[in-house]
Amino acid sequence: MKSLEGYLHDAGQAHGHICAGQVLGVRLAMLGLRKLEIDDPQGKDRKRLVTFVEIDRCATDAVAVVTGCRLGKRALKFRDWGKVAATFLDVSSGKAIRIAAKESSKALARQLHPEVEDKNQQQMLAYREISDDDLFTTQWVRVELPPEEFPGYKGERVVCEQCGEGINFRREVRREGKVLCRGCAGESYYEPL
């Protein structure tokens, strides 16, 4: 693994800037990899890891940079829970650990650096210094990953009987004997004009 500063450099380039969320995300991912004993997530260990992130904010970009997990490679999974947390699954051993940022870390940052007025700057500085135990909660967990969720899975493709679009990875809805995509089944996030 790289150093904290090395990953922060890479995260800043990928995200466009360094912020407190980037520092948290880098630290969170580094801790997850250490706990799972994954030393080379973008090299020899790259097929061992699937990561679930729980927020669509800055920390997620940093987690992706450190782990090498990407949505397009099916190794990064997004669960919209609104939490600065991630679960790291070693698919070769089945071991998984969930790590979440402690809410108390913000107050701790204020205590450590009251001389820094800008909250983001204060947190960026403190999050580099605070111990893992004071910054995060960790919990060993079990994650059931069905075959269609694994990176590299080649599954059947079906066609929605209403709109004609293809659907991958068993994401179709079967209703009243018809195969439908989620949009046509009423789960759409968009509305046709």
Automatic annotation (TrEMBL):
<keyword id="KW-0560">Oxidoreductase</keyword>
<feature type="domain" description="Formylmethanofuran dehydrogenase subunit E">
    <location>
        <begin position="15"/>
        <end position="136"/>
    </location>
</feature>
<dbReference type="InterPro" id="IPR053194">
    <property type="entry name" value="tRNA_methyltr_O"/>
</dbReference>
<keyword id="KW-0479">Metal-binding</keyword>
<dbReference type="GO" id="GO:0018493">
    <property type="term" value="F:formylmethanofuran dehydrogenase activity"/>
</dbReference>
<keyword id="KW-0863">Zinc-finger</keyword>
<feature type="domain" description="Zinc finger DksA/TraR C4-type">
    <location>
        <begin position="160"/>
        <end position="190"/>
    </location>
</feature>
<keyword id="KW-0862">Zinc</keyword>
<dbReference type="InterPro" id="IPR003814">
    <property type="entry name" value="FmdEsu_dom"/>
</dbReference>
<dbReference type="InterPro" id="IPR000962">
    <property type="entry name" value="Znf_DskA_TraR"/>
</dbReference>
<protein>
    <submittedName>
        <fullName>Formylmethanofuran dehydrogenase, subunit E</fullName>
        <ecNumber>1.2.7.12</ecNumber>
    </submittedName>
</protein>
<dbReference type="Pfam" id="PF02663">
    <property type="entry name" value="FmdE"/>
</dbReference>
<dbReference type="Pfam" id="PF01258">
    <property type="entry name" value="zf-dskA_traR"/>
</dbReference>
<dbReference type="GO" id="GO:0008270">
    <property type="term" value="F:zinc ion binding"/>
</dbReference>
